[in-house]
Amino acid sequence: MTVSTFRGPVSADDLGTTLIHEHVFVGHPELDLNLPHPEWDEDVAIETAVGGLERLWELGVHTVVDLTVLGLGRDVGRVRRVAERTRVQLVASTGYYTADVLPAYFQTHGPGRLVGGPDPLVELFVRDIEVGIADTGVRAGMLKVVTDQQGITPDVRRVMEAAATAQRRTGVPVTTHTHAPSRNGRDQLEFFVSRGVAPDRLVIGHCGDSEDLDYLRELMDAGATIGMDRFGMEHVLPDSARIATVLTLLQEGYADRMVLSHDAAFFSRVTPPSWRAANVPRWNMENISRRVLPALLAGGATEEQVHQLMVLNPARVLTPSAPVE
């Protein structure tokens, strides 16, 4: 089986070391047009991203999944300018990032709504995966959904329903944003499994924000993969605590059910580069290669376990399963 990338399909065996939860650029189209961010310069940002990805390649990282979906300023044409100039394989994603409500368009379009018609979310997600995103021809290799402190609101439920439908039709995996203090990965897992999505098609994201080992074990024991995917986000939890959790779970035999990443970006107007440099200087895509993996090995992890976390698990997750409808 192959995985869709910006440069076309790639064998899962050729993905290599993979960061499965990152962002190239995070923006907001309306704000970007009407309230431009003083630190944003597209040409400079593209050079920064190309340089950063090339450094990752030299560190041994060969694939990065860009989880920038609608709601986060996805611009695949812009990211393709980066993908064309780096040896790193970039994987695009589809989904809708909202923790509460969708834009007004979705309130009037869809079954039983004012304008009616099929659910545009389902059409969008499936087209992005099977045909390509916008007019780029770049096909999405992952689905992304969100639940945060607000829980599964009516509009979040609608996004998750559409993602479940798209997953069953295409076999592409689903990754999630969770609110770790609420332990709402449980709700996500229950929701998707009840709608015919196999647990091994799910990455319950941001589990690295939690030190509740019972909660993490529960998700993995049910068959899901957990995302230990915010290394460097030390304003949420220090890396030392994140590393300690991973080491404990490795010792308990869970090496095949975790993936590591940063949730970092080369530019985000939510937390712009100047803020990151001053407050979270380790929050970048090189952190795992330079600091986290050496710390795991020093703490007792084996080279085989690291290979499982960084190569085998992402390849398994990203490989599409057979459609079920």
Automatic annotation (TrEMBL):
Pfam families associated with the record: PTE
Top-rank taxon, per record: Bacteria
Which keywords does the record carry?
Hydrolase, Metal-binding
Post-translational modification N6-carboxylysine, affected residues:
144
- Asked if the record carries the keyword Metal-binding, the reply is yes
The record's section on PROSITE patterns has: PHOSPHOTRIESTERASE_1 (PS01322), PHOSPHOTRIESTERASE_2 (PS51347)
- Give a yes or no for keyword Magnesium in this entry: no
Give the protein family. Answer: Belongs to the metallo-dependent hydrolases superfamily. Phosphotriesterase family.
Name of the molecule in the record: Phosphotriesterase
Q: Which organism is it from?
A: Nocardioides endophyticus
Which lineage do the record's taxonomy fields give for this organism? Bacteria, Bacillati, Actinomycetota, Actinomycetes, Propionibacteriales
